[in-house]
Every structure is written in C-alpha cells, then in structure tokens.
Amino acid sequence: MNPYDYAHGLARALRESEWYRNLKEAKKRLEADPEAWRMAHDIRRRTVELQLKAMGGQTVTTEEQEQLRKLQEVAMLHSVVRAYLEAESRLSVVMDDIQRILAEAIAPVVDLSGERQAETTEHQ
Question: Does residue 78 sit in helix, strand or coil?
C-alpha cells in the first residue's frame, strides 16, 4: 500500500477517534460561550507571542512567564475552557506519539543528529 493511502487512513481514524470527538464537542461548547472563547483565545495568543519571542532569540522574562501562568490558572477555573484545553492536550499527545513513531521508522536512513557526520569527519 502507498504511504499516502496509509496517511489518509490515519487521518480518517483520527477523525473517528474519541480524542477527536471529545475535542470537537469541547470546541462547540467553547464557541458557544463568549467568555470562555475569549479566555482560550487570550491564552493561545499570549503563548504564541512568547514562543515567537523565544524563537527570535529574545529573552522571555520571568514576569511574562508568570503572567501567562496566571492567565492559564484563571482560565482553568472555567469548566468550559478547562475541558477544551484538556481535550486539546490529549489529542496533541496522540499526534506527538504518531510523529515519534514515524520519525523512528525512518531514523535508520535519516540522520538528523549530526553525530554520524561528526564521526565521519573525525575519521578522515
């Protein structure tokens, strides 16, 4: 079977999974509650801002990290936001596991660590 066919099958399996259904339902509840949606949106926006800052080589201050942590704590008190974030986290774990499994499958022929190249260079 063609790997693309397997990928499409995996996509179907994910859409039919309990993890996906739970996240979809949690998202519907989140979208129906303007306050919950705003809180989740604010957390996502602030998280992305800090990630981009860090990736850009800028320092994320302790104060910025603390502000995000407090925002997350308050949001987690809201049952709709908490349910959405927990469902999103569970599906994210599944996606990470799938990515790891795929990476392990090609690891013998794709060396991303650079260790092999360093060994080869040392022996020349």
Answer: coil
d(CA 84, CA 102): 27
Task: Kindly report the number of other CB atoms within 10 A of residue 30's CB atom.
Answer: 23
pLDDT in tens, 25-53: 999 999 999 999 999 999 999 999 999 99
Residue 116 has pLDDT above 70, yes or no: no
C-alpha triplet 89, 90, 92: angle, nearest 5°: 60
* DSSP letter assigned to residue 108: T
**∠ CA(35), CA(38), CA(39), 5° rounding?**
85
